[in-house]
């Protein structure tokens, strides 16, 4: 068996890179089933603009942020999750647009960071929640970012907790494969400043990456697209050399226009990046975090809670100061 695995790996390495990409469990391409990306009509930026039409910042925020296709995050606040994802995917489908959804409810979420702690009450509760999440989308086309930070947030966890988390992620991918055949799922792989490419490749593989469309980078962070592309390619190099396959990746460009200053929690002087699009050095450049939404009680968002929309932060991010 070992000899046959080594032989298979060697054969894959001998192929052109494009031929060595591991196929997703989903054969359908949701980008060809839709006409562009869906703009969330109820994003925090949209709601703020609607509530503050006379504010001097409203016009810029509306033009530069509120009308850019951005992911909607789903968690315990979303109510009955299958109903919520079904309504969102259904609205996008009626508009012939591709929706971006973030699943953010894993048990022991942000266990080591703490700013966004919470999540499902147990692994079994999460399994039920994510199954309903996938079932709500059903056959509609969609893109899902699966549990941001989940594979980077290992610093304070025991091996048993890590194993438990990886089983939850593998189970989630199985549910999307089973219930949402027209959804591309990207496992979150952190950012270039978190784990080494070799470490992240191992974590992705052990959590079931073969079942996913690919992996996501820079969610809620600030590293440049070039830095993320180099990191994503390095992760793929590790995947290819160690496991015999590669995967496409996407980059969150919502707040990376000025790059990172080394701080991840509401740093000053950041700027919005390239709007959501296909290509651009990755399979897609996506706005996954809404610019202006707080990372937590820190930095220029002192006194705020994670996810709270801060109009002054959003306004300054448009201009990069």
From TrEMBL:
Residues annotated as catalytic: 149, 295
Entry-linked Gene3D superfamilies: 1, 4-beta cellobiohydrolase
Pfam families assigned: Glyco_hydro_6
GO biological process, one term: cellulose catabolic process
Known EC number: 3.2.1.-
Domain of life: Bacteria
PROSITE patterns listed in its UniProt record: GLYCOSYL_HYDROL_F6_2
GO molecular function: hydrolase activity, hydrolyzing O-glycosyl compounds
Signal peptide residues on this chain, from the entry's feature table: 1-27
SUPFAM superfamilies, alphabetized: Glycosyl hydrolases family 6, cellulases
UniProt-annotated binding residues for substrate: 73, 194, 221, 264, 289, 293
Keywords of the record: Carbohydrate metabolism, Cellulose degradation, Disulfide bond, Glycosidase, Hydrolase, Polysaccharide degradation, Signal
Family to which this protein belongs: Belongs to the glycosyl hydrolase family 6.
PANTHER family, per database record: 1,4-BETA-D-GLUCAN CELLOBIOHYDROLASE C-RELATED, PTHR34876
Protein name, per record: Glucanase
